[in-house]
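Example complex used in Figure S2.
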Amino acid sequence: MTLRPYLTAFGLQWKIGLRYRIAVVAGLVAQMWFGAVTLMAYASVYHAAPDVQAPLSLRQAMTYTWIQQSLFTLLPLGCLPAVGDAAKTGAIVYDLLRPVDMWHWWLSATLARLLGNAVPRAVLLACVAGPLAMLVGLGAWSLAPPADLTAAVLSLLSITLGALLSATIVMWWNILTARTLSPLGSYAVGTPLAVLLSGMLLPLPLYPDWIRPFLLAQPFAGITDIPIRIYLGTPIPGGVATGLGLQLFWLTTLTLLGRLWMRQTVNRLEVQGA
Amino acid sequence: MPETMPSPTRTLSALGLYRRMAGASIVAQLRYPGTFAIQAIGNFVTTLLGFFGIWSLFRRFGSIAGWDIGTVAVLYGLVNVAFAVAETLGRGFEVFGGEYVRTGSFDRLLLRPRSTLLLLLGHELRLRPIGRFLQGAFVLIAGLWLAPHVQWSAVLVLPLAIAGGAAMFLGVLIGQAALCFITVEGLEVVNVLTYGGVEAGQYPLTMFGRWLRRFITFVLPLAAVCYYPALFSLNHPDPLGMPTWVGSLSPLAGFAFLGVMVLIWHRAVAGYVSSGS
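Predicted assembly (551 residues):
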């Protein structure tokens, strides 16, 4: 087995992600706006109830929000656009004919697409929300540095696993798209799930206490929530090892089951178009 | 279609024309009932989850910065219902850059002896936002039920607020389309005013910093169509000191905003240079 075709698929989608520079700036403005609205809401909620012992301090909640906003495009919101087009036009047969492992072929393209979109945005927003905000005197609203050096290294490892996990979930959306011959269903299902369960809507630690163990154990928490908790140094039941363990567990499980589902789908795939 | 076809020589009134375009659009969307159902349900669930987030904050902190859940629910319901109406009507403006300006097919609209605004309204009567609409209406009614001092005049003011809010969001979409004459492709930055407006409108105005309060009061009249009418309907004094009666008239600002955007649209159309061949 050679790696070259997968690297090519990765390189192509990575470049597509980097091409739209204006979209990156537009996205930055939108994320700053949503970040600002959310931060002001949290600030007034926290200040109005100073006695409540929340699992996150206000500063941590703000940092959580900034990191979530900057990683928005890393979330598995729907299928890979290229797979959606291929399913609609019937061009999916070309993918079936390639002498490559289709799972790895799509996975490398998906991962590159997610990273190509997310990395420039994340770096840019981190610079604006971190050092730049400090310089202009908005230190209290800015992105806090990681808890310590260990937290920084471990969260970097964790976010790498998170990106892989997100790409694996997008693979499930890709298979769903190939099955239903339309990308719309994957977006209709994927976006609400990803936005709620990853902690984009509200940091997962702030949900009611009875539901928090379930929220930590589900696969979407491994994308951004667990890396952010490690970054902030907030306690995870069982420590950092639980967090990384959960990520590895979901990565393995979703890959094995996903490959099985893909084989079954490909075997009975009906292709649209001539 | 069951209705009798008018003879080709008869000219349709503007309303009649719009009705037929809207009818055709609805029939087209219902051709794929499965897709429609999934999208509408997805829309309902996504927006309902948004309220679940606010509710969770409420559970943990007891109140949202001193506001009771009823008031927050009314704000949330108002802004979502208004935006859903604008989303339903204004799809043509949303896709204007990509589908009309870039392709040059706006030239064809200009050849027709009808207002371009009417033709673009008729581009699609989108059914999908019904999910957001129902969910917003549900939260709005729940909020009115929970809030302690609901006024009877709310029956008049809330529909006015929804109409004003829908007019304001439609104005944003028209302004966004007018901007496409310069940028050709639609710019996602405008989402700050649509989706971002919904996000900001669902919290009480007092929660925001002064620059944001000024922006959503005087630039985009979001507070006028959402916050003040809600205070009036619930007989809740404004912590910022605005007299309560303001809320009964302020939704008119939404229509004024729409009017300004229509004027800008006409100016922009007058200066239009085709990009097509």
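Chain A is about 70% helix and 0% strand. Residues 102-135 of chain A form the longest helix (34 residues).
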